[in-house]
Task: structure prediction
Amino acid sequence: MEYIIEVAQKEDLHAILKLQKESYLSEAILHNEFNIPPLTQTYESIIDEFDKGFLFLKIVINNKIIASGRGYTSKEGISYISKLAVDAIFQNQKLGQSLLNELENRLSTCLKYELFTGNKSERNLYLYKKFGYQEFKRQLVNDNLSLVYLEKSNNRTK
Result:
């Protein structure tokens, strides 16, 4: 499958939020926790992220956004990557890996990268560790969910 990763525009945010909510439903089911930020995020807050300068990336096939991810770099030099989402029909085709790689490339002025996932998200944890991320913290949310925070140094040439 051929595709291009593009920078998303403000008019894409409705579709990205819809994709995000559909994609993260499986995470909510896995953890038996439906009050997670990707599912509770509002359109107003995704607009706020965009307006604050978050980098939104998208993969489009047949005029439909089938994958997205976002990130930003803090003043402290940490690039936070979040809400990687892939349409269920297109999962297991390395789109998440491609998005993660592209986000790292485009946010490469940082000292390190950080992201997090749920403790039962074995596929996500496998992917992130494959990319060189290492766990540095766990945060207990409730009996069903702990967040696993991972980081990696930016060793890319700038």
